[in-house]
Amino acid sequence: MKYMLLIWNRPGFTEELTEQDRTALFGEVDEIMKELTETGELIDGQALANPAQTVTVRLVGGSPEVVDGPFMESKEQFAGYLTVDCDSPQRAAEIAARWPDVRFGGAMEVRPVMEQAGTEM
């Protein structure tokens, strides 16, 4: 089954880390990505640009309107994702629990990816 692991963290938190801690964090990410590549579980993954570069489209007065920013009601922002193909939701959660952003106040949301038939709904 495919799972999307959505990475949520506080924008700019890495700039608050020491260079040593930042290097260690990115090293952990590299190790996880290498492991998932070697096991064949990694399908895709990308970091997202700073939320300041975001626009949001909403329906306002019956017409779509484009506004600056994500305007979320939380301190965390959607920062990136991994798509993995795992044997179980427990394995996907295990991968998410190892993601270093979680230790720094972030979160990983684990969601099954629907197949084209949509029978998972």
UniProtKB/TrEMBL annotation:
PANTHER family: BLL7171 PROTEIN, BLL7171 PROTEIN-RELATED. Gene3D superfamilies: Dimeric alpha+beta barrel. Belongs to the YciI family. Residues 1-115 form the YCII-related domain. Pfam families: YCII (PF03795). This is Uncharacterized conserved protein.
